[in-house]
Design a protein that fits this description.
Helix content: 25-40%
Strand content: 15-25%
Shape: globular
Radius of gyration: 24 Å
Bound molecules: 6-O-phosphono-beta-D-glucopyranose
Distance between the termini: 16 Å
Structural class: alpha/beta
Length: 518
């Protein structure tokens, strides 16, 4: 097949919007301030927001870590972590605006005294300002410590139960993984909800902060031409891919326990599926959107019997080649068991039992050490009911496809058939392209910027409600259980640099389809 002809959509060049929103004074407390997330994501995001004039001037930050250090020591440490970054995150002048407002509390998260020290610091900062301040707690700590941390914060008075409209709001951001099964997620929800209201809990899924993911809602619900075809009447199947070329890096300790389904499917991929499949909410209010998402999760058909062997494929990478260079297999990575059964790849078919999607398979796949990094949602449409143009022998008609590219190279494309000029009817495929960079210029905004800001203004739309996290575990738990009970698959079963195990191709081929190459 020849490459499709590409037509670029013309978009008036518009500067990216930075919607000014009122954010009251607040103190951000990061538990796990010495960790990777703080250095790689949270601090750079705050610096970006500061450079864009989106942070309140009186934001203060308390970092909580095990290591004893002074406030100045903490500032120096973070400065060296961000100094080499490009853009505002590495800009000395921006840094100088944030640095005086950084404080450090050292302590063990198992000790009540740590939480008391946090509360004392909060009270001291609040005493200086003279205005009412909100408190935002970010749990950037191992999930096993979440219950202890939430209870410790509540007992010390640092994290009080507060009304949604209170200017002295208190909110807590909980990183994934939110539990490791339905039972553990329910237990964690119980602990957190025993001390604060649901409106104070922000369960983060950083995929929901990605620009194109949010654009999916605009694409679907601010245009009237797509909605009529967005259903079983026209869609043949949906493919959602989150491919990574990286391996487990230095996170094997966590990943060995998690594996790809807990790491990527329970949260990110199911979130993408919900946004693709949900009904239009009547307002863009947090609960209206979240109600629709949870309905999709509840409508996913539970797998049973031989569904697991037919519709859920797992893989683990062996040694191979990425970007022309040799890379080790998963079992050879540092801190991975030599006989590890942890899957690093999965391809799963989900069916949604509702009027809109009955009979339309949703194929989701994600894996590490695949040939390239690409996340996309592809809606593949049915063939025309009757084709009056004769096709050359052996050729089939290319399907219409809408592709939403989440990363990299964010954008949208639409593939359709056109006539090749000349005598007689010969067809070829054209692709209409919309690229974010081309329309708005390259931006290096991170999903965490959107999400941090949303927490500060109290907008929960992009955060997971307790019922959604539990519903997502209800979907993946049986798959994890079936895999644990069945040791038949031999690992490794795909080479690093390949598009997953052969069984994944067979899975989608049964629906008369094939995986796209992003
Ligand atoms: C994280 C997972 O949530 O998402 C990682 O724990 C994964 O394993 C990462 O690499 C992917 O995020 P992104 O934004 O790079 O697609």
């Amino acid at each position: 097949m020849t490459d499709p002809i590409t037509l670029t959509m013309r978009v008036p060049r518009v500067a990216p919007a930075a919607e000014p929103r009122h954010i009251g004074a607040c103190t951000l407390v990061i538990l796990g301030a010495g960790g990777d997330l703080t250095r790689r994501k949270l601090i750079p995001s705050l610096l970006h927001l500061l450079a864009d004039g989106l942070l309140p001037d009186d934001l203060s930050l308390i970092g909580v870590g095990r290591e004893r250090m002074t406030d100045q020591g903490f500032r120096d440490d973070l400065r060296s972590a961000v100094a080499g970054l490009s853009g505002p995150a590495g800009d000395g002048a921006i840094w100088e605006r944030l640095a005086p407002r950084l404080y450090h509390v050292a302590g063990d998260l198992g000790a009540a005294s740590t939480y008391e020290a946090i509360n004392e610091r909060l009270v001291a900062i609040e005493g200086q300002g003279g205005t009412e301040r909100g408190r935002l707690f970010y749990l950037a700590i191992p999930p096993s410590v979440y219950p202890q941390a939430v209870e410790g914060l509540a007992k010390s008075g640092a994290l009080p139960r507060r009304d949604a409209r209170d200017a002295r709001w208190a909110r807590v951001i909980i990183e994934k993984p939110f539990g490791r099964s339905l039972d553990t997620a329910q237990a964690l929800n119980k602990v957190v909800r025993a001390v604060v209201g649901e409106h104070q809990i922000y369960r983060i899924d950083h995929y929901l902060g990605k620009e194109t993911v949010q654009n999916l809602l605009v694409f679907r619900f601010a245009n009237s031409i797509f909605e009529p075809v967005w259903s079983r009447h026209h869609v043949h199947h949906v493919q959602i891919t989150a491919a990574e070329c990286l391996g487990v890096e230095h996170r094997a300790g966590y990943y060995e326990e998690a594996g790809v389904v807990r790491d990527m499917f329970q949260n990110h991929l199911l979130s993408l599926l919900c946004l693709t499949a949900m009904e239009p909410p009547s307002t863009f209010a947090a609960d209206a959107v979240r109600d629709e998402k949870v309905k999709v999760l509840n409508a996913i058909r539970p797998m049973q019997g031989d569904d697991f062997s037919k519709f859920a494929v797992r893989g683990q990478y062996g040694a191979g080649t990425i970007d022309g260079g040799p890379v080790a297999g998963y079992r050879e990575e540092e801190r991975v068991a030599a006989d590890s059964r942890t899957p690093t790849y999965a391809a799963i078919r989900f069916m949604i039992d509702n009027w809109r999607w009955q009979g339309v398979p949703f194929f989701l796949r994600s894996g590490k050490r695949l040939p390239r990094r690409a996340t996309e949602i592809a809606i593949q449409f049915r063939q025309p009911p009757h084709l009056m143009f004769p096709l050359p022998k052996g050729e089939t008609l290319a399907p219409n496809v809408i592709v939403i590219r989440v990363q990299p190279d964010e954008g949208l494309s639409l593939c359709f058939e056109i006539k090749i000029p000349g005598v007689g009817v010969r067809m070829t495929s054209a692709r209409m392209e919309f690229g974010y960079d081309e329309a708005f210029g390259a931006t290096d905004h991170d999903a965490y910027e959107t999400l941090l800001l949303d927490c500060m203004v109290g907008d929960q739309t992009l955060f997971l409600r307790s019922d959604a996290t539990e519903a997502a575990w209800r979907v993946v738990d049986p798959i994890l259980g079936a895999w644990d009970a069945d040791g038949a698959v031999t690992f490794p079963n795909y080479a690093a640099g390949a598009w997953g195990p052969a069984a994944a191709d067979q899975l989608i081929a049964r629906a008369g389809a094939a995986w796209r190459t992003p």
